[in-house]
Amino acid sequence: MQPPAPGGHAPENPLVSLVDAHMHFGAVRALDGVSLTISPGECLGLIGHNGAGKSTAVNVINGGLTPTGGAVEYTLPDGSRATGAAARAAGIRSVFQELSLCPNLTVEENLRIPQHDLWGPGWRRIARKRIAKALDEVFPGHRIKPGMTVGGLTLAERQMVEIATGFAEATEPARLVILDEPTSSLDASIAHQLLDYVRGFCARGGAVIFISHMLGEVFEVATRIDVMKDGRITQSRPVAEFTQQGLIDAMGHVASVEATTAIREDAATRIGEEVLRTDEGLSARRGEIVGLAGLAGHGQAEALARFFMGRSSGPRHSSHPDVVFVAGDRARDGVMPLWSILRNLTLTHLPALTRRSIVDRAAEKVLGADWKRRIGIRTDDILNPILSLSGGNQQKVLFARSLASSAPIVVMDDPMRGVDVGTKREAYDMIRFEASAGRTFLWYSTETEEICQCDRVFVFRNGRISAELTGDQINEENILAASFEMQESTA
Amino acid sequence: MTDTVISTLSQTHRRPWFWAFVASTAAFGATLLLTEGRGGGELLSAALTFAAFSAIVGIGQMFVITLGPGNVDLSIPATMTLAGTLSLKFMGGDAALILPGLGVALAVGLGAGTANYLLIRFLRIPPIIATLSASFLYQSLAIWSNRGLRIKPPSILADFTTGATLGVPNVAIVGLLIAVIAWIILERSIYGRWLSAVGQNARAARLSGVPVQLMFAATFIGSAVLASLTGYLLASFSGGAALNMGTEYLLISIAVVVIGGCSIAGGYSNVPGIWGGALLMFLIVSMLNSYGLGAGVRLIMTGTIIIAIVAAAAGKESSA
Q1: Is residue B24 included in any domain, yes or no?
Q2: What CATH code is carried by the domain that includes residue B259?
Q3: Which chain B residue has the Cα nearest residue A361?
Q4: Residue B205 — φ and ψ, nearest 5°?
Q5: pLDDT above 60 (res A438)
Q6: Would you say residue B142 has pLDDT above 80?
Q7: What residues of chain B lie within 8 A of the CB of A387, using their CB?
Q8: Would an 8 Å CB–CB cutoff place B209 in contact with chain A?
Q9: How near does any CA of chain A get to the CA of B56, in Å?
Q10: Are A69 and A21 in contact (CB under 8 A)?
Q11: Quick one: average pLDDT of A415-423?
């Protein structure tokens, strides 16, 4: 016998049951004891923060990840129970948030990827029939032809194809379909068609896991809502027992207040005149720490990149930078893998260390030694390769690269990603110190604790600024409220 | 003091260019073994002369390859031919026009390099395709302006390019001077740093304030200017421009970069290796020639030896 899901009922014959599932990636506990069951006819709304563990839970349920602890059990169509690779046979399908279609293939050819029985002469004909039927059922009135190349479709049409693939007829009929942010690129009327279809699908005995940050949609379609936080399910109740405000409260957690107040108390003396304002409404003043918040992928990184690129071109920029960039995705945006720590550290400030085009290597070493001491890079020799450092120490080098320059504005693209707590504390101190010396920070972070250190916060949703918070308004509740779509979705 | 000398010596075999020089010396020795030591001076002089041409275009190619994967200048042969053809036609054998003629050649390089860069930057054509297709254009211009005429260089210029100073061929002196300047740019100047940064990760370089587009423009223009200088010297050396004079330098310019121990993936290169590779390319061929091997065997041997050198250098690198 398995224990009942917290607050939920224990059905006799669940399609899937997770019992105390743990999933650890190194020191990261993505799932920390999750128990849930899904039965035919249920539509489970799964909600939570960035990094709460939703995607990991989905991947454990669909068999993509094997949990490091606990058990996953499926009920096969013939009524027997199975574990492990049986997910597909049990009729479990996933539709992912990141579009996973092959853009160079046609719509019907893409169906071949999940459906392995499509082969031999005439498989395209069968695929065409299946995908056309699914599209007609889920999105009546769509204008997608199975022979169209996916690369030529709009983002919304691709998402429609992906959803239809999840519900399409196959040798094993779909019994549980996991929809991860299915409506993120769909407009309201198309989204409504999907919600209608999902309700019908469940009424016919299917099951759906519906993950969305559009709380209105979740309320409309779900029969039960599970709230995830820090790798656990904290609440699981029938939908009627939740209110939207209650859900937002359930997702959040109280930020550490002491750090917040410490950084804000000198704000009045620190902050000066306005130094930047962009078309989309982003603005900052001298000495101000401005946060960019909201759910991941809602346009914050793009806004920062646009601002940086716009302010960092022209011949004068290299020698007198106006704005510098601290990368969070170190491998993609920051580290020079063949170089020493020293060379990585001095890259941005190098023009100031150069006389008649020749680098003053003695001055470079002095600067390197100075920053090594100031930010405590843990290495015995600054000429060691950068890749000999841990991730956190590499990040310190990237901080130093930007802060060593004379630029008045520092742009930070989620720089604390994968950094340990000690390094974070040091970095916060560094940011405070530099801000009090008159530098302006634009700080995108996915962690609310960091956003709460800012003087002013812009919350992004769907690529636009949805709220501007200052002073005491900056708290987790307000940020979450502005990150999530509050109004009911309309037809 | 002694310690540093010893550590420098013990480090030498780890240098990426080490094996190119070892192999060059071996090929030189093997050739002399056959002739029982006679003709060593002549062989060395010829090697330095022909290696100089390869080294100058090779240095240009090295800078381009350092920019990162997919960056290579395939227009070098056509640029050489066009610069040689136009400058010799301009001089028309008149000694007073030697320097203006050099100016014409370098202007051709400047123009070709700029055209290459603009194709890459504004039409967003991959460098391989852009430089290859542009080279058809340059080659056609050379054919059109040449019309089968072979104009002799001014005799002073011909004497200079075939002559020697203190026993060292003049062309080799030019090649060595260019190598020294290239070494300073690569190892000591901010441009070398920026080049390496772009080659390792262009996106990160841009975000760190490196003027990436400036580096691309300067590098492609530099490569074309070095090719045009080589075209000018080679045409003068061989008594006139020929339409096929650049052909073999397409492969050589890339081969010397690889043999010299530069990373074909970009971001990591060195100048001494270019000279090592250039000497080796000449000495292998003359060694195989003097052993009287046929053309087919010669090509097979050349290929095999190059593979062995590159493999030896790569093996050293990973074990170091």
Answers
A1: no
A2: 1.10.3470
A3: B188
A4: -65, -45
A5: yes
A6: yes
A7: none
A8: yes
A9: 22
A10: yes
A11: 72
Contacts of A306 in chain B (CB under 8 A): none
Q: Who's near A195: CB < 8 A, 6+ residues apart?
A: A217, A220, A221, A489
- The ipTM assigned to this model is 0.84
Q: Do A347 and B191 touch (CB under 8 A)?
A: no
- Average pLDDT of chain A is 83
* A318 inside 8 A of chain B by CB: yes
The region of weakest confidence among A18-32, B190-204, B213-227 is: A18-32
* B304 interfaces chain A, CB cutoff of 8 Å: no
pLDDT in tens, A230-277: 888 988 999 888 887 788 777 765 334 444 445 555 666 677 788 888
Q: DSSP of B25-63, one letter per residue?
A: HHHHHHHHHHHTTTTHHHHHHHHHHHHHHHHHHHHHHHH
Q: To probe the interface with B, which of A350, A353, A360 has the most B CB atoms within 10 Å? A: A350
Residue B9 resides in a domain: no
Task: Note whether residue B124 is domain-resident.
Answer: yes
- Residues of the domain holding B257: 50-313
pLDDT digits (tens, 9 = 90+) for A332-371: 889 999 999 999 999 999 888 888 889 999 999 999 999 8
Q: Which two tokens stand for residue B176?
A: 């060595």
Which of B194, B208, B212 to mutate against chain A (most A CBs within 10 Å)? B208
